[in-house]
Design a protein that fits this description.
Strand order of the largest sheet: 1-2-3-4-5-6-7-8
Distance between the termini: 29 Å
Strand content: 5-15%
Structural class: alpha/beta
Largest sheet: 8 strands, parallel
Helix content: 40-55%
Shape: globular
């Protein structure tokens, strides 16, 4: 398939003048719904992918091939530009290069590589640890080396603001910018003072994870070159709750006709693109 159009659209978002909120998606249907509702981009989080594929928490047990398979299934279902949380690139710098190659082939419009020391090393006791700056730079270089389509957006991601502090976060952002990544993705920016400092230190577009109350001003975020602000992953959480509630009611004796909150037939037809299948069947099967 040709992924160029969606990548160019995503580059327009990253290179634009305003901040957007991507739709958190976890499978083909959720991506189609986000596209139909007018979201300009989708976001596939690492924790979401682990839930969707394995039913497992975000503890780095998902494999690259499993993630790439999910990305391909989402992308073939529609035209929504998709940003991928590629975590630490599934290993060292060589693995990062392979990760970029696989996710690019699967249709990613953008992806982030982070400098977190993953999976958790023995004795870390659940505390987030970062790679050295030198190792982080090496991963960003490897990610860029793995890219074949120049329209694919590669973001350098760090959780340094909440782990090692703002000074280190800025040093990492400047180093990754110098390497040549397309955007800086930061987790843990909670105040305007911190975001102002980061925005002043680098020239690249910014992506932030989560919008605390102090930053909940989309004009302000746009002025600070934040182009994507994540909202969390409520859709898959809502889906889990809905499935559990429905199955619980059926287990407890509810008649199927008593179950509320179900998708209307018209919605199911729309998200499954039923009309296109029927049109093809009419042409090719002589129905």
């Amino acid at each position: 398939m040709d992924w160029k159009d969606r990548r160019r659209k995503f580059r327009q978002v990253i290179g634009g003048t305003r901040c957007i909120r991507p739709g958190s998606v976890h499978d083909a249907l959720s991506a189609r719904i986000a596209e139909d509702l007018g979201f300009e981009a989708g976001m596939l989080g690492g924790s979401v992918a682990s839930l969707a594929v394995l039913g497992a928490p975000d503890v780095m047990v998902l494999t690259l091939s499993e993630l790439a398979g999910l990305v391909l299934r989402i992308n073939r279902a529609g035209n929504l530009p998709l940003m991928i949380d590629a975590d630490h690139g599934f290993g060292n710098a060589l693995n990062v290069q392979r990760t970029v190659e696989e996710l690019e082939t699967a249709g990613a419009a953008g992806l982030s590589i982070e400098d977190t020391d993953l999976p958790e090393p023995y004795g870390s006791q659940g505390k987030t640890r970062l790679l050295s700056l030198e190792q982080g730079v090496g991963k960003m270089q490897a990610a860029l080396a793995g890219r074949q389509d120049p329209d694919l957006v590669i973001a350098g991601r760090t959780s340094a603001p909440s782990v090692t502090g703002l000074e280190d976060a800025i040093a990492r952002a400047k180093a990754y910018e110098e390497v040549g990544v397309d955007a800086i993705f930061m987790i843990g920016l909670n105040t305007r003072a911190d975001l102002d400092a980061v925005s002043a230190a680098v020239k690249l577009p910014l992506i932030i994870g989560g919008v605390p109350a102090e930053l909940d001003d989309w004009d302000y975020l746009s002025e600070r070159r934040v182009r994507i602000a994540l909202q969390g992953h409520q859709p898959i959480s809502a889906a889990i709750a809905a499935v559990e509630q429905t199955l619980r009611a059926l287990r407890d004796g509810a008649h199927p006709s008593e179950i509320g909150g179900l998708a209307a037939p018209d919605l199911i037809r729309r998200v499954t693109r039923a009309d296109s299948y029927e049109e093809l069947a009419d042409r090719t099967l002589g129905r």
